[in-house]
Amino acid sequence: MDSIGVLMACPMNSYLEQQLDKRFKLFRFWTVPDKSSFLNSNKDSIQAVAGNATAGADAELIEALPKLEIVANFSVGLDKIDLAKCKEKGIRVTNTPDVLTEDVADLAIGLMLAVLRKLCESDRYVRSGKWKKGDYMLTTKFTGKKVGIIGLGRIGMAIAKRAEAFSCPISYYSRNEKPEINYKYYPSVVELAAYCDILVVACPLTKETHHIVNRDVINALGPKGVLINIGRGPHVEEPELVSALFEHRLGGAGLDVFENEPYVPEELFGLDNVVLLPHVGSGTVETREAMADLVIGNLEAHFQKKPLLTPVV
Amino acid sequence: MESQLPQERSKLRTKDLPQVLVMKPPPLLTLFEDKFISTKFQLLKAWESTLPLDQFLTTYAGSVRAVLCSGASPVTPHIIRLLPSVQFVVTASAGINHIDLNECRRLGIAVANAAAVFSDDAADAAVGLLIDVLRKISVADRFVRRGLWPAMGDYPFGSKVIISLFVCFTQESWDCRTWKHRSAVAKRLEAFGCTVLYNSRKPKPWVPYPFYSNVHELACGSDVLVVCCGLTAETRHMINREVMVALGKQGIIVNVARGAIIDEKEMVVCLVHGEIGGAALDVFENEPDVPKQLLQLDNVVLTPHRAVFTPEGFMAACDLVVANLEAFFEDKPLLSPLIDE
């Protein structure tokens, strides 16, 4: 298969890169100085694209690659892929569900505990030598806090299962109520935010969910409320979030994603009620390897005319 | 010169209200003093006197039947000897290593602690610390705040939350009630898919996890060691070099119990030389001093003994301590006595 051209949209994982290089003809899109002329010269060789949360296959790229047959995503989120265009052109799309569910859910709980119990701040307090001068403050109890989840898919359910072990009552918002599930349903995100103490974003990013956490939702969550975002940066109206934190209209935030990664609003750097992570939701050695294996597995299955492992389109 | 007794004491004092000796105020009392105003007892505040403690006790505490103690004001055999009428010692903490239990047992002095109300917060802190050290949350947060994400690209990964872990229980006596408290950590970690194993002096039939009689053996089969037992003569430095080496290069230690359960000097050596994978520590042998070498490491998370320090936990502890004291003075059963097996 080393004549099959695979375009890797951006650097995403060195193990994946190595494997793609070994098995296919790998084009590293980010190393190309003139992208449109590159595409023009190589359009007949590229039959696959490997994308992720940063870069995928938008309409423009799809149009530029007439031989494109499959987009294999190194992510479960599909917001960087023009799915409608892929459907229209009969291009297959795969992602990496399930293998990363636990890691993302673990991180969501880790963020909740880190924000409420001020773990990162406490660690800074010890390392700076301040403990010798005085005790650190009291922090907020986590057990029993009401957790509201936006999107009750695989990741949302995994977060709920973990939070329940801390006696947290679970409530959710989703496009449709799920009567088979025993958690309290709210028909709008604002109502969910008004009810819960900790609001977690765990839904896919689509046109409908863009800025689903806006000023109204943030105000409803309130000065004791905490927002956790392990979805996508554009789920949250970031400037509104920043001003709410500064004006104490929101109690705290644990953020793994931002609207303009890798740029994080610098105003947040001085706050002790936020935890800021560089998009590491699925970032464990074990999981990234499993994700890479899925990308390779899907590509090989496609070109060997076997059933795809994790097709979306 | 005799010290001036506090005004409020003389306001509240009636000849009938029995006294509870407090040598130094526990953090609970400093923060929530109002909660300790009771119609069943009054506080005898030794720290407000200019007299040295021994003299104060000899002069004023001769008929005191109850003591509210804390880590800063231990109840030693010497102190007990100065309190000829003492029948009850209550501590506002979960830990009891500052009370001489043998001496209390010998003299029939009842002891109660506040472990019951702190177990959720301690378990939350233990789990939070574990996820932090495995997923490098504090390190990654530092990385972002230093503006390194745009410059350096993605942060190097952490490791998946553990598959099997070793929960270290007390080797001292505890019964099936206190098991509920110890199990708060296990219950939470099971929801993450962890396998729980435990060690204790004897197997407990009501504990659903595989039992290991030997700390070293257990460490061999585990990825994480969570220390949540009491500090006693037997558990002091129980986590020694041998145990840590058995835990291994990927192994993690989480300690929300007492610093002295771990041989701290050896732990530092193991961490610096990569003989264990990492550690998340809320307690240390010599607080607030933390070994300098730890401050430079990215595979440790360090918090300043705050695992149980939440307003909710503290207020519940106040209520529990007061309820125990009131029960004692009314000759009713204590709410959270320590019971021997």
UniProtKB/TrEMBL annotation, chain A:
GO terms for biological process: oxidative photosynthetic carbon pathway. It comes from the Eukaryota. Residues 18-312 form the D-isomer specific 2-hydroxyacid dehydrogenase catalytic domain. Keywords: Glycolate pathway, NAD, NADP, Oxidoreductase, Photorespiration. GO terms for cellular component: cytosol. The keyword NADP applies. InterPro entries: D-isomer_2-hydroxyacid_DH (IPR050223), D-isomer_2_OHA_DH_cat_dom (IPR006139), D-isomer_DH_CS1 (IPR029752), D-isomer_DH_NAD-bd (IPR006140), NAD(P)-bd_dom_sf (IPR036291). Pfam families: 2-Hacid_dh, 2-Hacid_dh_C. Residues 109-281 form the D-isomer specific 2-hydroxyacid dehydrogenase NAD-binding domain. One of its GO terms (molecular function) is hydroxypyruvate reductase [NAD(P)H] activity. PANTHER family: 2-HYDROXYACID DEHYDROGENASE YGL185C-RELATED, 2-HYDROXYACID DEHYDROGENASE-RELATED. Belongs to the D-isomer specific 2-hydroxyacid dehydrogenase family. GyaR subfamily. This is Glycerate dehydrogenase. The lineage of its organism: Eukaryota, Viridiplantae, Streptophyta, Embryophyta, Tracheophyta.
Automatic annotation (TrEMBL), chain B:
Residues 43-336 form the D-isomer specific 2-hydroxyacid dehydrogenase catalytic domain. InterPro entries: D-isomer_2-hydroxyacid_DH, D-isomer_2_OHA_DH_cat_dom, D-isomer_DH_NAD-bd, NAD(P)-bd_dom_sf. GO terms for biological process: oxidative photosynthetic carbon pathway. Keywords: Glycolate pathway, NAD, NADP, Oxidoreductase, Photorespiration. Residues 183-307 form the D-isomer specific 2-hydroxyacid dehydrogenase NAD-binding domain. It comes from the Eukaryota. GO terms for molecular function: glyoxylate reductase (NADPH) activity; hydroxypyruvate reductase [NAD(P)H] activity; NAD binding. Pfam families: 2-Hacid_dh, 2-Hacid_dh_C. GO terms for cellular component: cytosol. Belongs to the D-isomer specific 2-hydroxyacid dehydrogenase family. GyaR subfamily. This is Glyoxylate/hydroxypyruvate reductase HPR3. The lineage of its organism: Eukaryota, Viridiplantae, Streptophyta, Embryophyta, Tracheophyta.
